[in-house]
């Protein structure tokens, strides 16, 4: 259990903030956000904090950048911003601005500390829903009741609550302390992944047919590129362990962003190599990630595969299409926008990518959600032109859910970070649904693209005990 001794000094501060929140709520006649952040040293690790349980709060969120020693773990919900209607990114941005402008917030200027909303968005809100994605709507951004943050060795706890005009501040403060004490952080036995008994997969013949269809659209001039994805469904002899998957992903992909959203019934988890938007103050950074090759079994083979990736005109064209789109989308909201003229090669455990970093300075009126709205879906996960590529994906695959969609966090200064939710899986009991995509352009070969998607399945297959 978390010791009350670590948070007792904040009891009076919390009550004082709740009193101010109640006063503001009475004036506005509507609930007001109250948020208090404080340093802690309770000895919890991020994975242990995530594994903690509270009987009243099944919702949990996780965000880890292992190489940066940056972690966010959320428990429960103080407030939820979300909508099943199209265009909900804009509405969430408006609701968020109104909430933080009227809120009573005490937090230091430390990344990831304060009232953070964590969650994500659906890949294509215009696609008919697949029942497997129940609980993951078009948009869902959750303000955790309790947010644990670790940044560069320091730990923080942010407590968030909505205060109504009729709230009793003293009682609400005591209730929050009791809730925190009820968070069960006793070490649990290390769960193992169950054996996978069956796999439902798209056959190579069906995949090849889809690729040939896409190539016809490219040859006719309707499309320059479209990103097709395969779905692989694993059926196990027991419930898949989200905690076990997170531990393995953090350990084997430290350069990626490891994330999880668990609503108590299902979990969306992954280790994404691609940052869609990172905003700190007015500074924007992101990565253009497109074009892939396998890693070699020895240094010489790995070097040869890297040279082939860099020399391939097909892979270069695929990468350049994404770079051009990002540059065009960001020019009117950024000053001093910069990117390298030649892509780097970024090597992960089983795959290497062409990567181009972008940096720039945002205009004063823009936040991270404004960038997410402008960029999603990029040609790296949809195609060129975007609207035609989406129609083909919709007709061919149906609902991708949150796969390849923006997942991330947003703070009270409009800063935050979102990644593209690739290398991911949906866990629902004894079933896991995995996705992997490949860009189809002129010159694509169905067999080569099939091998590429199989390679991209490997991180999550390994995390679930099947790779």
Any overview of this molecule?
There is one protein chain. By secondary structure, the chain is α+β, with helices and mostly antiparallel strands. The chain has 2 domains: 4-181, no CATH class; 196-463, 4-Layer Sandwich (Anthranilate synthase). It is 32% helix and 33% strand. The protein contains 11 helices and 23 strands. It has helices spanning 11-28, 46-51, 88-102, 169-181, 204-219, 242-252, 299-311, 313-330, 368-375, 386-397, 446-463, and strands at 32-40, 60-65, 70-75, 79-83, 104-106, 117-121, 139-143, 146-151, 154-163, 196-201, 225-236, 257-262, 267-272, 275-280, 283-294, 334-339, 344-347, 351-362, 383-384, 406-410, 416-420, 424-428, 431-441. The strands form 2 sheets. Strands 1, 2, 3, 5, 8, 9, 10, 11, 12, 13, 19, 22 and 23 form a 13-stranded mixed beta sheet that branches. Helix 1 packs across helix 4 and helix 6 crosses helix 11. The longest helix has 18 residues, at 11-28. The chain is globular, with a radius of gyration of 23 Å. The model has no long low-confidence stretch (mean pLDDT 90).
Fold blueprint:
Layout: H1 11-28, E1 32-40, H2 46-51, E2 60-65, E3 70-75, E4 79-83, H3 88-102, E5 104-106, E6 117-121, E7 139-143, E8 146-151, E9 154-163, H4 169-181, E10 196-201, H5 204-219, E11 225-236, H6 242-252, E12 257-262, E13 267-272, E14 275-280, E15 283-294, H7 299-311, H8 313-330, E16 334-339, E17 344-347, E18 351-362, H9 368-375, E19 383-384, H10 386-397, E20 406-410, E21 416-420, E22 424-428, E23 431-441, H11 446-463
Parallel strand pairs: 1-5
Antiparallel strand pairs: 1-9, 2-3, 2-12, 3-8, 4-7, 6-7, 6-20, 8-9, 10-11, 11-19, 11-23, 12-13, 13-22, 14-15, 14-21, 15-18, 16-18, 17-18, 20-21, 22-23
């Amino acid at each position: 259990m978390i010791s009350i001794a670590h948070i007792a000094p904040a009891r009076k501060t919390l009550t004082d903030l709740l009193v101010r929140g109640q006063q503001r709520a009475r004036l506005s006649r509507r609930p007001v956000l109250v948020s208090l952040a404080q340093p802690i040293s309770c000895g919890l690790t991020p994975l242990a904090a995530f594994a903690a349980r509270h009987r009243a709060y099944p919702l949990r969120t996780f965000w880890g950048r292992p190489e940066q020693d940056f972690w966010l773990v959320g428990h429960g919900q103080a407030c939820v911003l979300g909508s099943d209607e199209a265009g909900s990114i804009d509405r969430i941005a408006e609701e968020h601005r109104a909430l933080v402008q009227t809120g009573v917030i005490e937090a230091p200027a430390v990344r990831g500390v304060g009232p953070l909303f964590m969650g994500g968005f659906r890949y294509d809100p215009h696609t008919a829903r697949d029942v497997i994605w129940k609980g993951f709507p078009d948009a869902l951004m959750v303000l955790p009741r309790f947010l644990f943050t670790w940044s560069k060795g320091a730990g923080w706890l942010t407590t968030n609550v909505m205060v109504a005009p009729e709230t009793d501040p003293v009682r609400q403060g005591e209730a929050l302390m009791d809730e925190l004490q009820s968070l069960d952080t006793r070490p649990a036995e290390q769960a193992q992944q169950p054996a996978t008994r069956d796999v439902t997969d798209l056959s190579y013949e069906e995949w090849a047919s889809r690729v040939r269809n896409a190539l016809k659209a490219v040859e006719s001039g309707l499309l320059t590129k479209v990103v097709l994805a395969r779905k692989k469904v694993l059926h196990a002899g027991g419930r898949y362990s989200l905690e076990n998957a997170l531990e393995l992903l953090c350990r084997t992909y430290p350069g990626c962003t490891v994330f999880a959203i668990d609503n108590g019934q299902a979990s969306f988890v992954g280790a994404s190599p691609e940052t869609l938007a990172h905003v700190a103050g007015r500074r924007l950074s992101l990565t253009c990630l497109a074009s892939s090759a396998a890693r070699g079994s020895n240094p010489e083979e790995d070097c040869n595969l890297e040279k082939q990736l860099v020399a391939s005109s097909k892979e270069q064209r695929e990468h350049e299409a994404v770079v051009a789109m990002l540059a065009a989308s960001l020019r009117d909201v950024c000053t001093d926008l910069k990117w390298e003229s030649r892509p780097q090669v970024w090597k992960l455990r089983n795959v290497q990518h062409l990567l181009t970093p972008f940096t720039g300075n945002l205009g004063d009126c823009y936040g991270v959600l404004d960038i997410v709205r402008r960029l999603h879906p990029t040609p790296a996960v949809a195609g060129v032109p975007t609207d035609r590529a989406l129609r083909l994906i919709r007709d061919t695959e149906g609902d991708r859910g949150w796969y390849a969609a923006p997942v991330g966090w947003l703070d009270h200064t409009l800063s935050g970070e979102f990644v593209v939710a690739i290398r991911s899986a949906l866990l629902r009991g004894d079933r896991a649904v995995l996705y992997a995509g490949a860009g189809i352009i002129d010159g694509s070969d169905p067999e080569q693209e099939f091998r590429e998607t199989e390679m991209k399945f490997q991180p999550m297959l390994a995390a679930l005990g099947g790779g």
